[in-house]
Amino acid sequence: MQGSSNRLISLTATNARGSGFFISGGSNTLLAVAGNHNFNFGVRVSGSVDTVRLGTFAFNGIGASFGFGTGNEITRSRTFENNGFGIVVTENATNTAVTLNTSFDNFGGYLATSGTTGSILFLNQAYSNPFTGIWIQSTSTHNIVFSNGSYLNTLDMRDDNANCDSNLWTFNLFSTANQSCIG
């Protein structure tokens, strides 16, 4: 989907060679969409101020990916059985809100890659992922990870920055973490 202020409601995209949905404009909304069994991404967002709400992304390479934009949001969505992570915020993405989502039985739950900044992860659940539930890579800074549940993962929470740098981890429920600054 290109352009601005578009809205897609109750659509399903399956068996695409690339992405089920690709958003490159601004202020677009995907509501109650499903991107399943796609080679790369269930949904890939590269615009700004785009919203994905009530989505289901399963059996893809990666469930949902956000990059090269600012102010994007994924909320009240489910990602499961993806070969990679359920939700990924990639380099050059700023101020991405990941709220009220469930990510399970993927390789990993949530990933903020190196170079991202200002993401908020709030009230998400990450469980039964054989790798990491919530992972912030080095040089991903100024993120807030608040009131999430991460459990039954090989490692529940991980921050690769020394002493979590400027990332704030607080009021999360988990069993395992790689640093004591994660709370």
Number of strands: 23
Shape: globular
Return the structural class.
mainly beta
Gyration radius from CA atoms, angstroms: 15 Å
Look at the structure and give the CATH class.
Mainly Beta
CATH fold-level assignment: Pectate Lyase C-like
Overall mean pLDDT stands at 97
The CATH fourth-level homologous superfamily: Single-stranded right-handed beta-helix, Pectin lyase-like
Q: In order across it, which strands form the biggest sheet?
A: 1-4-7-10-13-16-19-22
Number of domains: 1
Biggest β-sheet description: 8 strands, parallel
Which oligomeric state applies? single chain
Order of helices and strands: EEEEEEEEEEEEEEEEEEEEEEE
Question: How much of the residues is beta strand, in percent?
Answer: 35-45%
What's the number of helices?
Answer: 0
CATH architecture: 3 Solenoid
Taking the alpha carbons of the first and last residues, their distance comes to 38 Å
Helix content: under 10%
Report low-confidence residues grouped into runs of 5 or more.
none
